[in-house]
Amino acid sequence: MAQKVKIDIDGKLIDMPVLEASEGFNVLDVRDLINEGIFTYDPGFLSTASCDSKVTFIDGDKGILLYRGYPIEQLAEKSSHLEVSYLLLHGELPTKTQLETFENSINQHMQIDKQFAKLFDGFNESSHPMAMVCAAIAGLASLYHDDLDISDPEYQMKAAIQLIAKIPTIAAMAYRKSIGKDFIDPDPELTYAENFLHMCFGESGETASVSKTLSRALDKIFILHADHEQNASTSTVRMAGSTECNPFAAIAAGTAALWGPSHGGANEAVLGMLIEISEISRIDEYIKRAKDKEDPFKLMGFGHRVYKNFDPRATVMQSSAHAVLEEQGASNDPLLSVAQSLERIAREQEYFVERKLYPNIDFYSGITLKAMGIPVPMFTVIFTLGRMPGWITHWKEMVSSPFKIARPRQLYLGENSRNYIDINKR
Ligand code: ACO
Fold first, then answer.
1. Is the distance from the beta carbon of residue 265 to the nearest atom of ligand 1 less than 6 Å?
2. How far apart are the C-alpha atoms of 219 and 160, rounded to whole Å?
């Protein structure tokens, strides 16, 4: 039976329908409220569903994350990032042939045009790789604009393939630029994650040699980051995309949103924090600072807007981290000891327990990526690489059915109308 909520506006009773979710919270449909001259107020969208979606489901209280209905733990263990990308884009797992065709088309489009690659010449070696990645993704819009037709499913898939195929190459180019080395072409014989590692750490003209443990762990990181429903960057992609702009431009907007330390930049911030703490004996001092309301310091890698239990991705990442640390001989890394002690202490303290502040995926991915030899400024780039199929799937979902330009309202608290005062009379 469909639920309804009655709202009393100055004595006038209004029936508001409740939309039924297939899983999770139902949603009060407030669209008619505008006819009564009233808006809803929800800064930061804590209680607002901005769209309907069939892609990903999260139950933050139970620590559940499903892509198209499949639990993240199963996908991380059994699938690959490209299979997950296909699943997100198409809604179903591929057959063997469908997966091969998809993988082949990704492989065919990984190469970046030499002329386009000159874009990187405009940056210094010290430029943050995220600045280069944002610019390069936005720049791709120039290559795929003439045939722009966002309502055409063929154009949508073409954009999806190009973005998923080219992001590892762009990410690796940003890294090579930062270390002053020549770019390395993708190798069609390698898997997606192997290719990325080869393009970052290989030597020009030499046969690729990539550790299976590292490429598998990296592929897992990509899977764990592939989508997370209406997070800040995905909502940004949807918001920019709702203006009917070029999808590459919408994805560039999402990439910029991901950069911040409250979102994808947190894995970089985690490492910065661990380096700053540097010794187990100093942890108490930082815990004290995190609890102090007068101090803006927060424990990076702890807490999540949605997960108020544990982050299921963090659990997968925690075990994968161990395999990498062992292979890299980094189990004795002092930063790791600081991280482990910090996690234990924070989990015991009332402040963190009461507020349900658990370690999130960034806490473990930061440590894993460091052990892999990936430089800290590249961490958010790795997140960008992983999130690409999620962003493009949400964009595709939005433009595939009728949508409106996203245009939030506000509660105006400024001055009332007043007359302009001549500058000599102020
Ligand atoms: N350290 C210390 N205190 C914290 C932390 C933290 N990491 N996170 C939240 N709190 C406190 C807040 O100060 C607040 O305390 P109060 O109730 O006494 O005022 C309470 O916990 C609730 O916090 P909110 O800020 O309301 O939580 P919100 O859901 O808005 O924020 C966020 C979530 C942004 C992730 C926050 O926990 C944070 O900044 N964490 C650190 C950064 C981080 O790890 N970000 C990664 C997010 S995951 C991702 O993007 C993949």
1. no
2. 19
